[in-house]
Amino acid sequence: MSALTIAYILLFYGAALVFVIGLFYRIFKYATTPAPLKIPTTPAPLNQRGVVFRLFWEVVFFRSLFRSAKWIWLFGWMFHLALFVIVLRHLRYFTDPVWAPIELIQPFGIYAGFVMSVGLIGLWVRRFSVARVRYVSVISDHFMLVLLLAIVVSGLAMKYVVHTDIVAFKTFILGIMSFQWVSLPGTGAGEAPNVALLIHLFLVAVLMLIFPFSKLMHAPGLFFCPTRNQIDNPRAERGLRSHESRHVAQWALDSESVGKSGV
Amino acid sequence: MAKFETPALKEYLEMPASLKKDSMVHSGPFVAAPQHQEPLGFPGELVDNWQDVAIEKMGELLGKYRSLRVFLDSCVKCGACTDKCHYFLGTSDPNNMPVARQDLFRSVYRRYFTLGGKLFPKLVGAVKLDEGVLDQWWSYYHQCSQCRRCSVFCPYGIDTAEISMAAREIMASVGKGQKYSNEIIAKVFKIGNNLGLPEPALVDTMEGLEEDVKDETGVAVRYPVDVEGADVLLVTPSADFFAEPHVDGLIGYGKVFHQAGISWTVSSYASEAANFGMFVGSYENMRKIALRIRKAALDLGVKRIVFGECGHAWRVAYSFLNTLAGPFDFLDSKYPVPQHIIEVTHDLIKRGALTLDKSANDDKRVTFHDSCNVARASRMGDMPGGQFILPREVIKACCSHFFDMASDTIHDSTFCCGGGGGLLTDDLMELRVKGAMPRMQALKDVTERHQVTHLAAICAICKSQFSKVLPYYGFTMDQVVSVHQLVSEAIVLGAKD
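Predict the joint structure of the above. Result:
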């Protein structure tokens, strides 16, 4: 097994570890930090079902963004929807046999690659062309778009420019998953290294490594956002007058009892 | 006060043609003196190791408020909010774009609480908390009226108000508090209301109102203070006791209660609906103010709590009162706690308990200003969006000529009056005038299209702010009216037919 293969195997184990632990740690923090006050942006749903519906519209159709900025919505939604299809397409490398629905969407994955590029370029152009957005952009904002764009382009390159032995590559991925490692395609003796594949994989690992530390946390963040996920029911309504009906954080209750004993 | 130019009202609301960096950096409120700080539990003046204290406070708040933690991580700088803030639209200062305002806080958070910010501060825009940053915080976190318009349009629901509140709490905790808000909170603790109106003056004022109404209508409408055993405790902004046009609203509440045969009282101990504890982001101070209302309700033995016309107050009342001062198991279980006076009046109108003569308001062509915190942080009635429907139905029951402003400037897209969130102070006059521009633009539009003459409001701050800024834009200060002033004009007192 070549040094390059070993390096990539280690890279992916490391990246996966950082990604999973980092993500769970951040989500754990969100989940355990209390929301001491009812702050849904109103009008808000009056029950849990309504909240699920509200979040569905936000997550799937970016409803608030649609209301606020049509161009950002267009490019942003294109990019995210395409990303979703591409991720589904890539499941073929991780499953054996490949699930039927994943088989079905394979052709759309390629179109999605182009759509995602257009979306990302559109978003990036806005970072330069709109003075307001330019003002709030820092290097990491550009970097994130460039990184994603480079991942897409290197992925498309493997389809159209550099031939990649995807059967061998799938064996490599399944090997990583089952801890029975095999060589990365293009690293064997006498084989020409597949630069597009190496770049693509490296950038994906970088993305996984920085995900938990970056603004990409907006994805889980949305589900923990009190202005969107809270039910509009703070008022002491008829029949809801017990202490249990109060929305109070533990730290607030603790300070209440301290206040009482102090008086 | 420095001279400034009132923004011109155009045909349409226009985006600022160019960003005017630092054009509002000079705008900041007076700093609180030790006697304004200490009653609130804050240090009297800037403490020596203020950076350490501030960072420690930031860490504490990150552990207490999920909103803050999630909001600081979630922003992707998409730019959707950048043209939504009335202060940005009125001043063109890029730091008044919600995302830029948040970034003043976020960049410090990144520097001290995130790996990226600790390792590569330049790349992710992380900065050390120093005097320059504190000065910027001081300026720009006092140019946010906590109106939540940005949170409506943010794809992740990020609410700049939460970040402004945290920033203000941190500043107050290191000894740099805002004079206007903190002085007022101290007054509430001492006397019971923002204006420092003591009980005898309150009684005197209310007796004066009784005489005025008697003279004008011939009917003895009561305006009671501290009456034990009354059904309703009315908690209303203290501006209602004497300011124009607020007091005309208070007269209206009294007439409604009179006509419906509901016994009511105000409390001299809790004679303030507004809760400035929210403006400075302090849960403890907000709770102390809210507990006065609970105590007053218990002491007077009332059955219901009703709030007068006030925006941020209604947010604290509707959304927070049960959290801060509940449970209200001692009140009549037939009514929600608290109720808005609009809900009470609306219900009475629906039940046919009031006789209203619309022609009394025929001299007025009325539009309605959705107060920001009523619109985006509370509700009225039992359906989502009731806060938009009920006030309009009450107005329409009292006036023949009602016209809404443009649809992207009302309901949850409403523009703040420009004076909310602890900014209704003369030391911020330039900000208030410029921040009112988008609302004034919409008013001008509806004036031209429908010859509207009056702007009805349900918030003490909105009313005071409009009285002050309307003249800057070529309107007159008496064009702003209380919604219950319209009710007051239309209501027919005396026995029902």
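Chain A is about 70% helix and 0% strand.
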